[in-house]
Amino acid sequence: ADIPGVYCNAQMSSKLLSLYARPDDKGLALLKNAMNRLNLSARAYDRILKVARTIADLENSDLIQPLHLAEAIGYRNLGGIIQKKTIVHYFPPNLHHFLPNYNFIGLDLQ
User: Fold this and answer.
1) CA dist., res. 48 & res. 60, Å (int)
2) How confident is the model at residue 75 (pLDDT cuts 50, 70, 90)?
3) Stretch 86-97: mean pLDDT, rounded?
4) Which residues, in sequence order, are CB contacts of 20 under 8 Å at separation 6+?
5) Residue 2 to residues 16, 20, 32, 58, 81: CA-CA distances in angstroms?
6) Nearest CA-CA partner of 54 in 66, 40, 69
7) Residue 70: how many CB atoms within 10 A of its CB?
């Protein structure tokens, strides 16, 4: 969208996010689950939506899918809350046996 003064998703206000980066019901459930489990702030919520919007844009998707949100959450710098690299996955596999240096956060929507 052509919005004066906005040249990238990082510049979107909360109002613009509600128009252009609104997740569907499954995505919203995923995001709320991550927010609660990781104790993230409202500011982090907006940043995750901006990154998810960018990921969706790169895939030429008009809508933000749950996988876009999961990827954005995975990129989130948790600033010492979790010391190891964090992997957020949509469908929880048993990869923790093979990758012991990673934290896995299962955000199953089923």
Assistant:
1) 18
2) confident
3) 45
4) 1, 12, 53
5) 12, 12, 30, 17, 38
6) 69
7) 23
pTM score: 0.69
Instruction: Indicate the DSSP class of residue 10.
Output: G
- Cα separation, 17 vs 53, in Å, equals 9
pLDDT 10s digits, 6-53: 899 999 999 999 999 999 999 999 999 888 888 888 899 999 999 999
Residue 50 near residue 12, CB atoms below 8 Å: yes
Q: CA–CA separation, 92 vs 95, rounded Å?
A: 8
**DSSP SS3 for 9:** helix
- At residue 77 the predicted structure's pLDDT band, cuts being 50, 70 and 90, is low
If phi over 0 gives left and psi between -120 and 50 gives alpha, with beta otherwise, what is residue 8? beta
Average pLDDT value over all residues in the chain = 76
- Determine the number of helices (DSSP H) and then strands (DSSP E) in the chain: 4, 2
